[in-house]
Design a protein that fits this description.
The protein is α/β, with parallel strands linked by helices. The protein is built from 4 helices and 23 strands. Strands 5-8-11-14-17-20-22-23 form an 8-stranded mixed sheet, with helices on one face. Strands 6-9-12-15-18-21 form a 6-stranded parallel sheet, with no helix packed on it. Strand 22 and strand 23 form a beta hairpin.
Length: about 220
């Protein structure tokens, strides 16, 4: 089996974490050949050198002469990730789904294209993660949950059963979404918040229990 040539879009902290996830998931190098990072932000060459993976320049430079046919969108911000995906998909590249081997996916869990699952993350049963969801390390999703495209669930967050997360939401590190709660499109849940009731599209909430700080007016 010939490995698939892949680039990681984003060379920030999360992009470099994704490199580690991919290496852990493919220790023998049979699935992927990682060709490099594609990034608009200047990356520290010494850091990349230590990782053994170089920069291929920004997306303009890469797409002018692509050296891979697949990509991972490793940018935390959902809106930026959406823009990256649209451009790379239009260029004919294929999104890769990446799952750390220490993550725990129960029965009847579906991961769509481009989903990234970090170390020790989990989902129980009857869970659907839509395209390009990030389920970061130690994050947990309970039974019968639907997570919309481009959502980011940060480290240690807990999304409990029968809840739903709409597209482009951000669930902060250590936050808890209680059972049956709906989090609207583009909403932001602050780190450590406990969400006891539904959050409208574009709202920013924080605290215990979570209270509205403002509305971004942003819809995904």
């Amino acid at each position: 089996m010939t490995p698939t040539d892949v680039v990681i879009v984003g060379a920030g902290g999360f992009g470099r974490e994704v490199l580690g996830i991919m290496r852990a998931a493919d220790a023998e190098g049979e699935r992927w050949r990682i060709r490099g990072f594609v990034t608009r932000v200047s990356a520290d060459p010494e850091v990349l050198h230590r990782l053994g993976v170089g920069s291929l320049g920004d997306d303009d430079a890469f797409l002018a002469n692509p050296v891979a046919g697949a990509y991972v969108a490793a940018v935390g911000d959902p809106a930026a990730r959406r823009r990256i995906v649209q451009r790379f998909d239009e260029a004919g590249l294929t999104a890769v789904t990446v799952q750390h081997p220490t993550s725990i996916m129960g029965e009847d869990v579906e991961l769509a294209d481009g989903v990234i699952v970090g170390a020790l993350a989990s989902a129980t049963t009857n869970v659907r993660l839509a395209p390009h969801v990030h389920l970061d390390r130690l994050a947990s999703v309970g039974h019968d949950v639907r997570v919309g495209a481009f959502t980011t669930i940060h480290p240690g967050a807990l999304v409990m059963g029968y809840s739903s997360i709409a597209a482009g939401a951000r669930i902060g590190a250590g936050a808890v979404v209680l059972p049956g709660v709906h989090v609207g499109a583009g909403a932001v849940i602050g780190a450590g918040a406990v969400v006891t009731r539904s959050v409208a599209d574009g709202e920013v909430v924080a605290g215990v229990p979570a209270r509205i700080l403002r509305s971004t007016g942003h819809r995904q």
